[in-house]
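Hi V.,

You were right to ask for the full record rather than a summary. Here it is.
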Amino acid sequence: MKPVSSPVDAIHGVLQHDIERSWPTMSVREANNEAIWRLLRAVVFGVLLVRASSDPIFNLLGGDSGAASMGVGALFNVVAIAVAVVLLAQTPLRAPFPVLAIWGPFLLIAFGSTLYAPDFKAAVRLASVLLTYWAFFAMPFFLLRSSLDVTRFVLVVIASSIPPSLYAFVDIARGLSNFSEFRLQSTFSHPNIYAFYLVLQVGLALYVRSSRILRVPPLIRTLVTLYIPALIFFLLLTKTRSAWGACGLMCLVYAVKIDRRFLLALLLVPVLFVGNPSLRERLADVTAATEVDNFSQLNDDNRLNSYVWRQALWESAIPVVLERPLLGHGLESFKPATPSFFSLIGPQGIDGHNFYLQASFEMGLLGLLALIWLLGCVAYRLVKGLRRDPPGLLVMLCILATYLLESYSDNMHFYLSFNWYFWFVMGTICAWLYKDEAVATPVRPGHGVAWRREGRHGTGATGRTDHVA
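Predicted structure:
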């Protein structure tokens, strides 16, 4: 086998598998559908490869990379939704159940809550952004044809991190003059977004090392392993503590359950904190206690640490949540409402820094239950499929757990580019499990799509072709 020098080369290599399909044996309609399918997959791969590096370009062109904006980045949103809709329209009556059932309730309530939101246009923009998250979750159900595609999709997401990683060195060089205040954000619009993206990349690297279904050349597996320390180094420089904790927990589970050699590597992390005072200060800030009887006692010398400040915000918001417990106050209502119930914020307002609380505030109990249904369904499918790839799916459960933990203390639903990658990964694994389970289900001739199970660890395909309804 010809050596593969990079994840991009690996993607090119595995894509050659599709060229072997025999077009002359297809009808005209089948050939047209196949051409559309390949075009749409190329578009999805292209968007995934460049989206992590696009925020600086959007800013230069006058757009805003934030989730609620309608700038240049909105074109990507339209493309994402359009691709998912076209894929769904090709087989509307045979769409996989998870495509609509998992996300349907949450999206229905989100769009419904725009009708009584204080700013209808802003609410519709955010609801449309949430729809793009569904789009990237749904795409793999239509694009994934064999277990080999799981390898393709994972490598595409990993390859998307190469430009941000290279640009991170430029960002670090610029921040050396004031390193104590520096937070690495690379090509992303905020250090927290880059941090959560890095946690996902670390998880995918561990998945490549552990999964039994991926067909990755040994050289690529080695390169991905060597990439992990760089990702963790960048993560530390983001100084995003919730991401530190989530990634640390994921790596600990991996070290204990899958590869205990990683325990030695984890012992090196405290050395970085000892050698960098700014990292120690960042960690110490969240544990520093501030006791006050009321907010009037706060000043420049007596301030709440970030976690206590969040707790104060959440406690102030709960009574307002209970004013409209069932339906909430409408999408995008939390930020403009905060000045009325939280005296530590100015008239500009602030978001909840807690996805679950903000969902309750804006969409009520129904929205919170729909969010729990969404995340719970994904977790259930991963747990149910553990026997098919125990180490790989354990890592995927850890990636999902990091998202749940990060959502406790941050505005995760606003981080568009990160969510695209996260939900595409979750959709890929759920689609693989769905189609692998359906292999044993008999179908009538002429119905369903071909599903191929590939061999493990690059040892070759089984040659078996089954059908999925």
